[in-house]
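Hi C.,

You asked whether I'd gotten around to modeling the 315-residue construct. I have! Everything is below, sequence then structure, no commentary in between.
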Amino acid sequence: MMGRPTASINMLEARASLLAKLRSFFEARESLEVDVPVIATAPASDPWLDSFTVHDPAGIHIGYLLTSPETYLKRLLSKYPYPLHSIGKAYRANEDGPQHAVEFTMLEWYRPTAKRPFEEMICEIQDLIETLTEFGRPEVVSYRDLFISVFGLNPHDIEANDLVHFASDLLGSKAAATMDLDSLLNVLFATKVESQLVNHIVIDFPVIQSALARIGIVDGESVAKRAELYIAGSEIASGYYELSDVVEQSERFEMDHQRREALHRPTLPTDKALLNALTTGLPESYGVALGVDRLLKVVTNVRTLSECMTFTGHL
């Protein structure tokens, strides 16, 4: 019936328990929980994310509902270099479906550390899953090894043409031939690799998928120092060894802008407040975004994301 809660009372109890455990986990690690706005003047620049726009009653544009609290948390981190985390709502347009929602709960945390930030990030994600769930400690595997095992190609040394015939079986040869390398990697990884990941952290992505992560060298190859947690074939969390160079960040924003134009997607304003924060100085740090609803879904072993949410279909 329209307007009624979609979650059972057992699910509501499981949700409250998971949130309490998450807060206890970070409190024990001396992380400060902060409350940040959900509206900003500039949204995420990621070419694959769509943001809701916000207007006042007179129709004047106010800003965007944020797809994550990243911009505010990094701005806080640049002023207060302490472990920070936030648990709140995030919004992504055009993502409604069995495994997605336009409004969802996100946990995002940042930890400044000058000692092996990437390795510490992976360890903290492992600790969280091992402590809060029954899945045990996630296994770490490289994007390169996974991609080679499925496609027989090194993802750090390929071009779009190398992948077209793999995608043609999924999308048709005409559609596949029009896709760029990033698009092809996204489609092939999601359809052919993710289902094999039962409790894994995938690390060291192709540079073209670096987003806001730093670039590092592994075995002589340039890689994006980012990590993604998968449980039962679902992406649960994504973490970056955070980019702190304002010049490189500006170049990344411009690249995203150009990609959005090439994909015929709406162009967006640049997050100048974040660039100002990077100019002030962001400490050596890592950041992780975790979908609380998705984690609850795999913990409770239900079929759809809507079963984990108190209400759905209200937007």
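If it helps when you're writing up: DSSP finds ten helices and twelve strands in the chain.

Thanks,
B.
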